[in-house]
Specification:
The chain has 180 residues and is mainly alpha-helical. The protein is built from 7 helices and no strands.
Length: 180
């Protein structure tokens, strides 16, 4: 009787003569290194890893793999930056680990938040004034629902688009810069 082989046995039998070239081994080594760095940064972002521990883990990875991590770290952090979220934890890593100037990104983020606040305040005042004049509804308890205010939504969206372009441009500049 013939032996029934598993799929793994069949694959191993067919590929036993294949092996990685030296270049393929190096690429695989680099991808594994980058993947581990990505995982560490995710743990940091999820607040499961503190900065001190992140530095220790990154140093150990560099020793284990014999590779430099600064460019990989920078590109991974920059890819995670988003204008519409709190970027402070990630922005503190860039100067510390990659010697990168994040002042322009911080400035854009601050201006964006201020612009959203200004538009929101102006629209709130305008809607309150409209309610008071047209419907005689006024007072401290009146809180306009700006989520349904089409004019306000349109203004905020236009402003967001402008700041998104600036933020993306600055992220590209930062990612492309190589510190020496």
């Amino acid at each position: 009787m013939t032996e029934i082989k598993s799929t793994l046995d069949l694959v191993m039998e067919k590929t036993r003569h294949l092996s990685f070239s030296e270049q393929e081994k190096q690429e695989q080594h680099f991808h594994e290194f980058a993947k581990r760095i990505k995982g560490l940064i995710q743990q940091y972002q999820d607040q499961k890893l503190r900065v001190e521990n992140l530095k220790i883990e990154l140093s150990a990875l560099q020793k284990t793999f014999g590779l430099k991590s600064e460019d990989i770290i920078k590109s991974e952090i920059v890819a995670r930056l988003d204008l519409h979220q709190d970027n402070r934890p990630l922005l503190t890593l860039l100067p510390d680990l990659c010697r990168s100037d994040v002042t322009p990104l911080e400035s854009i983020t601050k201006e964006y938040k201020e612009a959203v606040y200004q538009i929101t305040q102006a629209r709130t005042a305008k809607v309150k004034q409209h309610l008071a004049e047209k419907y005689f509804i006024a007072g401290e308890a009146v809180v306009p629902n700006l989520e349904n205010d089409e004019a306000g939504i349109k203004k905020i969206q236009q402003m967001r688009d402008k700041f998104d372009r600036l933020f993306t441009l600055e992220k590209s500049r930062l990612a492309d810069s190589v510190e020496t």
